Amino acid sequence: MPLRVRVCTVADVAAGELRAFRVHGVTWPVIVTIVDGAFVAVPGVCPHEDVALWEGDLDGGEIVCPGHGWGFDVRTGRCKSAPGLELRRYAITLVGDEIWVDLL
């Protein structure tokens, strides 16, 4: 059974910008953005090292980690620099104007 939590509202998110939202009980914030017209949610921490991804850059659909410069495609989770490494993507459910994310 998924752990679905309310993260933000649609108005809190902007296309092409990384927005990080704290979730009670979760160490790292959840990043929500809009890429190619679709909402995307990913963890706020780099899966390679514990670096804050929300402090990185969003270049098209790729988050560039500020710690080591590796890029993660938020649409697929794939890392160009390390093909076996993936950024987790969270399922999103829209409830009215609220964005809910499945953390598990």
Question: What does this entry look like structurally?
Answer:
Helix content is 0%, strand content 38%. The protein is an all-beta fold. It has a 3-stranded antiparallel β-sheet, with no helix packed on it. Strand 2 (19-21) and strand 3 (30-35) form a beta hairpin. The protein is globular. The model has no long low-confidence stretch (mean pLDDT 95).
Distance between the termini: 8 Å
Q: What is the CATH class designation?
A: Mainly Beta
**In the CATH hierarchy, what is the architecture at level 2?**
3-layer Sandwich
Reported for the largest beta sheet, the result is: 3 strands, antiparallel
CATH superfamily assignment? Rieske [2Fe-2S] iron-sulphur domain
- Provide the number of structural domains: 1
Strand content: 35-45%
Q: Please report the number of helical segments.
A: 0
SS elements, strand count: 9
Keywords:
globular, mainly beta, three-stranded antiparallel β-sheet, Rieske Iron-sulfur Protein, 104 residues
List strands and helices in order, with pairings.
Layout: E1 4-9, E2 19-21, E3 30-35, E4 38-43, E5 57-59, E6 62-64, E7 71-73, E8 91-95, E9 98-102
Antiparallel strand pairs: 1-9, 2-3, 3-4, 5-6, 6-7, 8-9
Quick take:
This protein has 104 residues and is an all-beta fold. It has a single domain (4-102), classed as Rieske [2Fe-2S] iron-sulphur domain (Rieske Iron-sulfur Protein).
